[in-house]
Amino acid sequence: MVLLLAIGRGVPKGLPMNSFDVFNGDADGICALHQLRLAEPREAELVTGVKRDISLLKRVEAGGGDRVTVLDISLDKNRSDLVRMLEAGAALFYCDHHFAGDVPVSANLEAVIDTSAETCTSLLINDYLNGAYLPWAVTAAFGDNLFDAARKAAVPLNLSDAQLSQLEHLGTLINYNGYGVTPEDLHFHPAELYRAISHYSDPFAFIAESADYRKLSDGYAEDIAQARNLPVAVEEQGIAVIMLADAPWTRRVSGVYGNELARENPDRAHALMTELPDGGYRISVRAPLNNKTGADELCMQFPTGGGRKAAAGVNALPAEMYGAFVDAFREMYEQ
């Protein structure tokens, strides 16, 4: 589904103007904003957080004369605050690929929404900018585990296999940095990582020159090595459930390890369940790569659940709902 709604008027003259850049703290959100600001530099207040922190518009107080850019967070999860700002007269640009529901109609809203399983926000921004910063869109698509879409998008770049592998690893690292319960779990706050990346129009220069890249790469290598030894609680033909203890490294690695498992077992759905201090679980779900659907539908059956068709999650599943979740997971994906 693609929705394009154009802004009907600009920022009113004579009013003070504040700008806000609101974005998911993962590879897709960071690379989407990076592309936009390379094309249209703008001083703005950055509003972001860990990957699961998607109700970001509640942090923004914007009204007449203000501009708000929103990237890679579900419109449906931010609907009331979006409407609040539109009614206050703020001008909003909203680009995303998660479930949106009904998009408000307003002269102050420009929305680019596409919920198909083979795209991401950075690829949508790439189209919006006519391919101006394609290597960063490819990086984000790799980070979002859209490997086929990333390689397809990269064709005009005529990259070598080694260069594609570099962008794949960079996307994985940026995405890896977004996972955690709080920013303290991360190597870098997503706003800090965005600022580090913002100095580089060329991702290969960031890879070659940035000490931040090396820190991420070293941290990822250590965490993923531990993840590959995690116990499997449920392993069946169509599903697997992997249990993770509550620790900073497991909170960081759960999403990217889920992506790796999905690539290694493309006909199987995976759920990574991280134990929470209250006894509940934080869950990352990956639909089979050969059947990229149902993850959002599954997770939205449970409190704090949401996401997209190919990858979704539950932020805090009560312990007593563990059995119900596994049953629903099995029903969704077992043939």
From TrEMBL:
The lineage of its organism: Bacteria, Pseudomonadati, Pseudomonadota, Candidatius Mariprofundia, Mariprofundales. This is Acetyltransferase. InterPro entries: DHH_sf.
